[in-house]
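fyi for ur records
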Amino acid sequence: MKFWKMNGAGNDFIILNNLEEKLPETAFPLLARTLCTPHLSLGADGFMVVDKAQGQADFRMLFYNSDGSVGEMCGNGARCICRYGYETGLSGPQQVIETTAGIVTGTRMDRRQYRIRLNDPTTLRLDLALEAEGRTWPCAYVELGTPGLPHAVVPYPGLAEAGREELFRLGRALRYHPAFPKGANVNFYDLTGPDRVLERTYERGVEDFTLACGTGTGSVVTVLTLQGLVSGRGVQVSMGGGVLTVDVDWAGETISDLWLTGPTNIVAKGEIFDEELPPLL
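which gave:
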């Protein structure tokens, strides 16, 4: 099997072109669990499959978390797969991608920068208060697309100095909080300046912090825009893997467009020989 490995702001993925490989969809969870395991295989945050579109899109994107669970969508993954589509001739500089959560469109800004229109927020709550780790945490909740990709948005003053163990325990507790029946990606943030945000995301399905989360970044900026804490224009969000830019178009509490811009990086192209994989055909 041939593969590409890419990352978007440090959020890394293995990409397989099933238009060529023609594997059954039942094989993908095992492929994700095996190939995404660090040290024992390629290692990645997620596994993405390019397949034939069911509608009029350029192609279909299937996303799997590193634990093999299905992900509704992935913002950094979508930016990477847009570049993959462009560089392999599956699409032009404007991309239309089918995802489990709905259609995502992309634009090639330059060789490495890609901009996507994230799925629309379909659920939005700005006023939650959740009990976890012995105290009450103010929280917002956003789902992007249908079915919705769930994100908790949690203010955390002094995030840059937060201890990893403490933040990990809190992220895990909120990820499994009963207020979130589907679980949630937990996005901690701290405002660091005008239209400047620091973010750390505990990702559902990875069960740890990742260096970046595109849909989480879009969710954070959506909440902060509606709360009047950022302008919604060119908001710079810093994470462990780099900086992403979010633009929001809205009227009242209705979001009409949510845009995510950031870097992509092609890390490797090659062939998979992992001997731990059973026959897949």
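The chain has a mean pLDDT of 97. thats all i got for now
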